[in-house]
Each structure stands twice: as C-alpha cells, then as structure tokens.
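Structure ticket #2291
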Amino acid sequence: MASAPEVGGDVDVIAGVRLAARDRFDPFGDQPVDVHLAGGRIADIGPAGALPRSGTVLDGSGTWLAAGLWDHHVHTVQWALNAQRTSLEAARSAAEALTLIRDVPPLADGRRIGTGYRDALWPDAPALDAVDAVTGDIPTYLVNADAHSMWLNSAALRREGFPATADGVLRENDAFEVSRRLNEVEPSLADAMVRDAAAAAAARGVVGVVDLDMGWNDEAWRRRLAGGFDLWRVEFAVYPHHLDRALAEGLASGDPLRDAASDLVHVGPLKVIADGSLGTRTAACSQPYADDPSNLGTLNLMPDDLRELMTAAAGGGLACAIHAIGDRANTVALDAFAATGAWGTIEHAQLVAAPDLRRFARLGVGASVQPVHLLDDRDMTDALWARQTARAYALRSLQDAGATLLFGSDAPVAPLDPWAAIAAAVWRTRDGRDPWQPDQALDAGTALAASTRGGSADDAATIMPGEVADLILCGADPLTASADEVRRMPVAATILGGRVTHLA
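Resolution: structure written out below.
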C-alpha cells in the first residue's frame, strides 16, 4: 500500500511528473511519467501508471522534474552569518552607510558588523574620521559586498592590530584575514546557522554546493555530519595556507570525507585568489580603470608563485579553483593551467580577452561564473571598465568557445538562489531595465544545466535510470517559464539521493 512522503524520508516513486532537461533522449516528450527510485538512484522511468506504484509515493502531478541544483561558489559560514549582520546594500553613499550602521547594537563578541555595500560609484569616499564620529568606541566593520575590502573604525583597527589610515579601509589580504577572524564564531552556533541557511537553500532546489570558506573545512564538515547535517552534498576547498597540511594528510579532490558519518561531503579544490575585484578596483586588467589611469589592478601573487602552488596541488591530487576577475589575471591563470597540467576551474572569469576564450575548452578548465553579478555590477562595469578591450561577463562567448559553465552565487556576495542566476544568464536584466549586452545571453537549457553538478558540459546531470536521485519538482517548466516565473520558481520538493530534504 502506497504512503505519502515526509521530509527526511525516502521516496520510492515520483508520480505523474513531466521531465525538464536539456538534450533529452527519452521518448516521453510532455507526457507525464512515473520515476521509480531504489537505493538512492533512479531505477526506472515509464508512462504514468504503467508500473505498479508501491512504497512511498510523491505525487508530482502538475510539476516538472529537473536535476537537483548546485551552487558552485559559496562561502558557507560567511553566508550563514550574514543573517545576524546588518545589510548595507541600500547605501548609495558613505554617509548613508554610516546612517544604517549608527545605532546597530554589537554582536555577542562585541563587534558591530555591516555587509553588502558597493562604494565604487559613491559620491563620497570612506574616511576614518567619519566612521569614528558615528560609531565611537564600539569596534565597527563595514564589509564591501565583494569582500575584497572593508571599512573599519579606529576601535576595530586597534582590535585587529592594524594601523590607522586616512580612510580606515583594508584591502585584499588584510581584508581576507579580518574576514576569517569575523567568521571564527563558536562552532555550535556556526553549525546551527549553516543548517538553517542550508534548509532555506534546499527549499529553492539546492542539493549541493562547493564550499569555499577559508577555514580548515575538513574538520568543520566532519563535525557537521556527526551532528546530523544531511541537506546537501558538499565539495570543500583548501586554501594555500592549509595546502601543506592537506597534502600531508592525503586529501585528494573527489575523495569522500575521511571517517565521516555519511558520504555527502567530498574533498574539493585548492582555492587560490589570483587577483582582486572590480568594486575594490584591484582586479588585474590589461587596461587601466576609467577613473584612475595609473591603476591596472593587482595580482595577489606572482605567476611563478601561482604555478608553484598549482604544481604542488596537482601532484597531490587536488584540483585547482583559481579566482581571476580581470583579463590579465585570467591570462595568467590559464597560462598556469597550461604550464602545470593542473585541472579545475577559474572562479569568476568576469573579464576574458578574446584569445583566451577558447583556451578554457582546450585546457579543460571550467568557467565557474556568477551571473547575478552581471546585474549587480552592470553600472560599475560600464563606468570602471569603459577602457577595457576585453568583454565583461561574456557568457555566450564562453559557451560558443566550448567552455564548461558552472553557475554559482559567491554567497554572501549574492543570495544563494540558482533561479536568480539562471534568470540573470538568460534575460540579463531585472527591475524593468533593458537587457545588458543581450548578445551574451544563454538559452534556458544551458543555464539550467550550468546550475547542476556537472555544469553545462556534455556529461551534465541527467534524469536517466542509473543516475543518482538528486531531483527537484518545479511548479513551472524551467525551460519555457518567463523571467519572473523563473525568479519565483516554486519548488514543490527537493530530493537528495532519494530522500526528501524539502517538501512544500
């Protein structure tokens, strides 16, 4: 006798759904089908009612079944902690940012933290005396949306051991170090917040993430699994300051977490930040920033040092995820992949020179991109990169060149919501504005595939017998829905390895 599913329980049959996927080879078309599961995998697919429905049956009538969604670029703890930090996204000036943070009470650790401002187009500039006048003796941290810079008051600079400067701004490695400290909250609190945030993401159809937190993620994820975390698959990064430890302990990309309570978590790549960001004006470019003719951005490490890191990682079995935003940084990163034989991704690839587009495919390097950034940054891009000869956010050009696209959010830089990324990539607009560079738009099938585990490659996640049952039930056909329908996509259920993680 059939029964209805519950969150946390296994499903035996998904009944009466229509399939939604790119490059389908099944014979069903728009016909409703039943998908039978066993052992966490798809066992069979047939016309609705053709095979007996037994066990736990999830009624999918009126929904479309798609592969579960992945976010390929998440800073998990920082994203989860944003729930207790003050949003400065609405600030259109330094003065407005200070107004927003002025009366915010400090957190339990005594710090006052605001996040999400974008100062590149502000009419006024951050200044230490201005933030001190408003915030007093409470250590106060205003974190740029791109996380490559932060504005501190004198009390915060003293607490963190940095000298006072006229603007109070820390950039790049100094900002990363302070971010790492801000994220070092009591583990039980951090883990509870990660679980809450993961549940919210599961409600949007997320079944997996690539976790690029800067801590020793091996330990953190073993602890979370032991505590019962079961909402996602995770591939976690290692940073250069932990590379020797990772190699000594034999961590290799793709391996399951050692001695873990489940097989949900695997070792991911070495993450290296090769340059800065657009908003902080530190992305390494071949042409100067429009408002600063002497500024070409910065490489955070020299090419020889990057190659040395990537050689060590590849020799130990670690893939590489290289942060490169400016076109000069992308060239350096691709050169390093070619010289070392390393494999993996370039993270962001926001500005890529035309001769480098085809190198992604030739070298087998994935383009791990964040489409929502193109909407958040469009005005900044037009203003600051007006002199650049390379093309910004050239998603269609990357696709046409044969690159594998993998979508992410860079949460907390953008919300962890793959539907927002899909809509941005397909329509390249929101809020009624004209599409930005519409010739670089993707088709819906490619954008949907790029938000799955395999990305847009030929071996992208499929709905076929034998495949892992990481699946979502959508309230609209994601391949034909409008932009607004995609952004608001109702997710009726999320299934991870045949187990329900979300049920509307």
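Closing remark: The mean pLDDT is 96.
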